[in-house]
Every structure is written in C-alpha cells, then in structure tokens.
Design goal:
3 helices, 6-stranded mixed sheet, alpha+beta
C-alpha cells in the first residue's frame, strides 16, 4: 500500500515539492521531514483487523481490515508556497487514485501544526475493506 501511495503522489507532478521514498523518521525517531521542507514523506502502513460482527460462539470470520498510511509535509510557515492549499487538496484527492481492491471506505484526515517556523501537515489515509 505504501508504494502504491508513493506512485500515485509522484504521478500528481506537484510543482515545487519532491516525493521521497525515505521514511519520515530516522533510526533514533527524529523527524526527517522537518530537516527537509517541501519534501513529501510517506510512512509505513499500519494494519488492524477487527471482527465485522460478533457472534455468541465467536465464529465470525468476517473482519474489517483497516490500513492506515500517514504522509508528512513541512513548509516555511512565514513564506507558505502559493500552491500549498492546492497541493494539500491534490494529496487528499489521491485517495481515490490508489489501487486498493475491495476497499469499501477511503478517507483522509488532515492535521496541521507548527514546529519552529515550519508548518507541518499530516495526512492520514485510511482504507477499510472486509476480509
């Protein structure tokens, strides 16, 4: 899933932004995306499986499988790029371009915050399918 998201974001051809295949955190847990503004970092996927419904005998085999991938991007907060809002909109819309067969729900949540003089955007892609 991570590689599919990387490919879909690269295909957007975002002007002024780079897409890297590096993880957003280094070995010590430091945020690499803070050191490299205007680079888009995609984290490893996280997968959880929960029963779709519970039965009295515990025999339910249908599960909701949720795959979450988080994307990070940092920009200069004082001199935010003119195309920043458009870039975020395109990143949100890419959820529908990712090849993830069987997904019955695709959502993206966007959170922003500041670290020093950087505006940090975190996009959390969530894909759910019944397995």
């Amino acid at each position: 899933m991570r590689q599919q998201l990387i490919n879909a974001i690269k295909a957007l051809g975002l002007s002024g932004y780079g897409v890297t295949e590096e993880l957003p955190f280094d070995e010590s847990g430091g945020s690499v995306y803070i050191k490299n503004p205007k680079r888009i970092y995609i984290d490893n996927q996280q997968v959880t499986k929960l029963p779709l419904f519970l039965t009295l005998n515990g025999g339910s085999r249908a599960q909701n499988t949720t795959t979450i991938v988080t994307v990070f991007i940092a920009v200069d907060a004082k001199n935010k790029p003119a195309n920043y809002d458009d870039t975020i909109s395109k990143l949100v819309a890419v959820k529908d371009e990712v090849d993830f067969p069987g997904s019955n729900s695709r959502t993206v949540s966007v959170a922003t915050g500041y670290e020093g003089d950087l505006l940090i955007s975190e996009l959390e892609y969530e894909f759910i399918r019944i397995t």
